[in-house]
TrEMBL record:
It comes from the Bacteria. The keyword Protease applies. This is Clp protease N-terminal domain-containing protein. The keyword tRNA-binding does not apply. InterPro entries: Clp_N_dom_sf, Clp_R_N, CLPT1/2. Keywords: Hydrolase, Protease, Repeat. Pfam families: Clp_N.
Length: 191
């Protein structure tokens, strides 16, 4: 299937892997594909997205804010509390025994985030949703009778099943429906 992808669309998928790694994700999710498109998609598509308030920097900040350096989130803390483990008490005990910066010293500050949070070097697998979005990009291109899969087709595939995080990044269902129309118009002009 990737032989049908344009150069920019391929570059966007590779950039998605790098974005996942930089955000410390062990897998490439739909939101990483969005970041890849913002970084490496065709200039017209990136411009369209920027005109709609969707920038690479803004999306990265939103995802970074949602992804804390804390490997245990609020749900994990609650689950531990339910079995009698107070995560805050464990942290306080570690700091009392090893110093206030013990947890910071455990992870060197200059170590890349992906390595720090359990990310890995080399190939990072796609989630099922990300694979589905790429498959849908092929279907979008076929339905339009386009000969290759451009970045716009990848975005259309994402917009068909964006998932919760990507839906929030893109401004909700109404914004997604409006964006689909604009992308189709962009692809019509390019054809």
């Amino acid at each position: 299937m990737f032989e049908r992808f344009s150069r920019n669309a391929r570059s966007a998928v590779v950039a998605a892997q790098e974005q996942a790694r930089e955000l410390g994700s062990p897998e490439i999710r739909v939101e990483h594909l969005l970041l890849g498109l913002l970084e490496e998609g065709e200039p017209q598509l990136r411009s369209l997205l920027e005109q709609n308030g969707f920038t690479l920097h803004g999306a990265q900040q939103s995802l970074s804010a949602a992804t804390t350096d804390d490997p245990l989130g609020p749900g994990d803390a609650e689950a531990l509390r339910s079995i009698g483990i107070d995560l805050d008490a464990v942290r306080e005990s570690l700091e009392a025994g090893f110093g206030a910066d013990a947890l910071d010293r455990a992870i060197p500050a200059d170590e890349p985030r992906g390595r720090r949070r359990g990310g890995r070097l080399g190939h990072i697998p796609f989630t099922r949703d990300a694979k589905k979005a790429l498959e849908l990009s092929l279907r979008e291109a076929l339905a339009r009778k386009d000969k290759s899969i451009e970045s716009g087709h990848v975005l259309l595939g994402i917009l068909r099943t964006p998932g919760q995080v990507a839906t929030e990044l893109l401004g909700g269902p109404d914004e997604i429906a409006r964006l689909r129309g604009e992308i189709n118009t962009l692809l019509d002009k390019a054809a």
